[in-house]
């Protein structure tokens, strides 16, 4: 079963690499977000004494206040600049976007008959699902890492004492998050024969999930009701974990959350795989 | 069991209110070429899908080489090859990649997988185009690629669902030659078609299927002889002259019919009866003489009251076109 999965995984990946324009387009949107929005929304610079004509004795106090505010900003965002905060969130949002559209390739394989070719082959149905999920997770990972690299060039600030182990941990978090989203939305691809269903589900889900999480804005600044929603949004935990490892923003029980994410992604994978296989055999 | 390769037992398939296949039963012997001949919507593809484990029958059973298509699905898939009506190759990849993946899915590795992929492509004469993207292939090449993809594991039983639909004469000949070659190698073949020439040219036995039911089954010869031999159409210049010929032929013991100025003579073999008929005609003015040998088209007409290819929508051409447009 593993070797079948690998063969099918390679097919998906080859197709993806073969389509350079699609690859570039899927990178452009998040890059724009991070570079244009993240860079221009520069909170730290918004708060300064500037050239207020203050008497000398007040000036020192003003500087103290600015410093206090900046410290508060750091507390809230875990970083002095919003760009770093947002980029670390976008790495995770990227896996959501990639995941919600993952069912498209399944629908196309069904429509173009490739799926029936697979169905008469003596392979486990599970490997069809697993290969597609693995390929989509791989794509998300490549895109997320590219985003991180570009962000780094553009001034992303890692935490002090950042090591390869932190990076590895962040990659595992991104992988598990991607696995969760992809497993769920790949199932949609196995259930439907129409790509419109995929596109509308993706559009329905993407923005609400992104805005009701800590990916773009800190939870602590949200109204109570929104905070409740964000508290059950897996994106929140994933972004918090990525920030914990990359920029050192503190969070409670990171390792517990890490374990929960791992468990959740595996359970989702198994359940959605079973349902997908059943959908194939109808 | 050893003698029977494919066995269908009262296969039924229902799609909602529509019963596409209504209790179809037949047996195909090892090495035999069996054709399902029927018009659009007759239930050919549905039957093939049930035999190849792609569709679960609503009721009934089927066995391939003794393995149940319901319970031994993996074993059945290992020994069958399916060339489906709809194309299945990934047209963003090359022919070579498509076939190689197929070989690997059947568990062959490394050199052996490559060897098998190469051999399959050579058999269908696509080795020269193997590195090209499938999207650049012609309709005939695509069909042959489908066949190559189904050959990598040396199937014992081959299903071809309308393998020549939408191909020109040359493309059709190429496929026919391949099918004959497979048969020579002892592969059991089940072929569906709505071209009666195809069924006649290739098959050992034919089943005529219409509205989900098998209407008749037998060798092409059997089916045709049920219709009662050849017909000689004699077209006289005037109805009067036709009537004279009619009565004279009748006196000589021929089975004759008169339609306006045409006399229709039914004989068991036109070649042996023609000299005598010609003698009768020698003193009369005749516009034309036509000999019609019975064909499956007429058998079909007789059995169902409809022609086979009336409204044949060329869905294969359509697919190739839409592939290209995309
Ligand atoms: N998945 C399906 N859902 C509903 N009806 C179906 C389905 N597949 C086939 N049918 C119906 O079953 C009938 C038989 O279809 P089938 O494809 O077996 O015919 P066929 O003999 O292969 O015809 P053709 O020569 O056009 O390929 C048709 O009326 C068709 O509309
Ligand atoms: Mg059909």
Q: Could you explain how this protein is built, in words?
A:
The complex is a heterodimer of chains A (282) and B (326). With 282 residues, chain A is mainly alpha-helical. Chain A is built from 13 helices and no strands. Chain A has helices at residues 2-18, 20-40, 43-46, 56-77, 82-100, 103-111, 114-119, 125-153, 164-191, 195-211, 224-232, 234-246, 254-281. In chain A, helix 9 runs parallel beside helix 13. The model of chain A has no long low-confidence stretch (mean pLDDT 88). Chain B is α/β, with parallel strands linked by helices and 326 residues long. Chain B has 12 helices and 14 strands. Chain B has helices at residues 44-51, 73-79, 95-105, 110-123, 139-149, 169-184, 196-202, 220-226, 239-251, 270-281, 296-304, 315-325, and strands at residues 4-15, 18-29, 33-37, 59-64, 67-68, 80-83, 157-161, 188-193, 205-210, 213-218, 230-236, 255-259, 262-267, 286-292. Chain B has a 6-stranded mixed sheet, sandwiched between helices. Chain B has a 4-stranded antiparallel sheet with strand order 2-1-4-5, covered by helices on one side. In chain B, helix 3 packs across helix 4 (110-123) and helix 4 crosses helix 5 (139-149). Mean pLDDT of chain B is 87; it is low at 311-326. The complex binds adenosine-5'-triphosphate (ATP) and magnesium ion. Adenosine-5'-triphosphate binds at residues 15, 18, 20, 38, 40-46, 85, 162, 194 of chain B.
